[in-house]
Amino acid sequence: MDDDSVFYKKLPKVELHAHLNGSVSAQTMEKLIQRKPHLNIERNMTAIGKGQRRTLDECFEVFKLIHKLVDTEEDIHTVATDVIKEFAVDNVKYLELRSTPREEKGTGLTKKSYVEAVIKAIQQCKYDGVDIDVRFLVAIDRRNGTEVAMETVKLAEEFMLSSGGLVLGIDLSGDPKMLTTADWEHPTTQELQFWRCSDPVVSLSQFGSSSSLRYVGHGRCLLPALERARNCGLKLSLHMSEVSSQLEESELLLNLPPDRIGHGTFLHPEMGGSQPLVDQVVKHNIPLEICLTSNVKGKTVPSYSQHHFRYWYQLGHPCVICTDDKGVFCTDLSQEYQLAASTFSLSPDAVWELSERAVDCIFAGEAVKQQLKQKWTEIKPGLLK
Ligand SMILES: CC(C)=CCNc1ncnc2c1ncn2[C@@H]1O[C@H](COP(=O)(O)O)[C@@H](O)[C@H]1O
Ligand SMILES: [Zn+2]
């Protein structure tokens, strides 16, 4: 490792946007593959290597494979434990992990036992003295529609009250792409005329749009669940404007408003967004979770240097460098900081400030923020001469 990499590795860091199943490392993947050889899944099918780029569609296919490999309580416990330890080795001092509770009839996994398995892994790591404070955000997959979103919020609410502060909020994620009419060959009259929010598939024409695109998992259908979450004290981190064409949804979601935004790639006017959207984000001071490699490899951003981090950072807006899916995108948080620094010419002082300011954006309370700030203060003299 060169001197430069050592600096980023030693830098104390906060990770706020990490999907559990997207964060599974090559080593852990090997273990899972050995547990389930009959699936015939190979390691290179679950990761996007250096220099490779895939469409969003192809990236979301990868998650389907990973989910086949991670389908028991034991698997969830294994991946959560390994992911937490890996972040700790990378000097991440505070981690908010997020994951979508899944039910697997074949293995007896329930959404509740899924969340319990993650929480047990967090508690075990703490007991074992792993030097990292880990919290959990329960994820809503937008594709599953209104009812599942509401169930997920209720589950999160239960665990918020029973987990001793480990469950702090909700993540809204899942494939944000629209389907075109080409995917929709035989709409029924009923489909054309009505949409119910219990149906995850919604015709945009119902929103007064002349477009005949269908939108799967529109945020409008998820608003009641998100409002309930907010009202019961769960924090909200929402994937927003990850692809273009989500302007109407972003407007709606920003009115909640969320506590943090995942990506926000297409919010600003230079990317087809709008000034009122930017003004709203700035007015509410909503931090952006920035995932450089994920956006470049998933082709929603053409190159590192054209990443929207530049726009928001220059505005002085709170931006937190994150990994998104460190396993799938073959990265780690140190590498993401290093990429941000080299792409946007950030000095070591600026990098330090970036990591320190991330502490202000965590969902845990004031006492935890103070503890983390103290840690940063102790480490600083040894790192920045
Ligand atoms: C495909 C791509 C470019 C990924 C990055 N952008 C993403 N956008 C939206 N949802 C995501 C993304 N990455 C992971 N997820 C969500 O996280 C899930 C995997 O982690 P988990 O099973 O919730 O533990 C995926 O099924 C998906 O619902
Ligand atoms: Zn994400």
Secondary structure: number of strands = 11
Low-confidence stretches: 179-204, 207-213
What spatial form do the alpha-carbon principal axes imply? globular
Q: What is the overall pLDDT average?
A: 90
| Small molecules in complex | N-(3-methylbut-2-en-1-yl)adenosine 5'-(dihydrogen phosphate), zinc ion
Question: SSE string, helix = H, strand = E?
Answer: HEHHHEHEHEEHEEHEHEHEHHEHHH
Terminal residue distance: 20 Å
- Number of helical segments? 15
Strand content: 5-15%
Give me the secondary-structure category.
Answer: alpha/beta
- Please outline the major beta sheet: 8 strands, parallel
Lateral arrangement of strands in the main beta sheet: 1-2-3-4-8-9-10-11
Estimate the helix proportion, in percent. Answer: 40-55%
Rg, rounded, reads: 20 Å
Overview of this structure, please?
By secondary structure, the protein is an alpha/beta fold. The chain is built from 15 helices and eleven strands. The chain has helices spanning 3-10, 26-35, 56-69, 73-89, 111-127, 145-162, 189-193, 219-231, 247-254, 275-283, 292-297, 309-315, 333-344, 348-358, 366-383, and strands at 13-19, 92-99, 133-141, 167-173, 178-179, 201-203, 214-216, 235-240, 260-263, 288-290, 319-321. The longest helix has 18 residues, at 145-162. The model is unreliable at 179-204 and 207-213 (pLDDT under 50). Zinc ion binds at residues 17, 19, 173, 239, 262, 324.
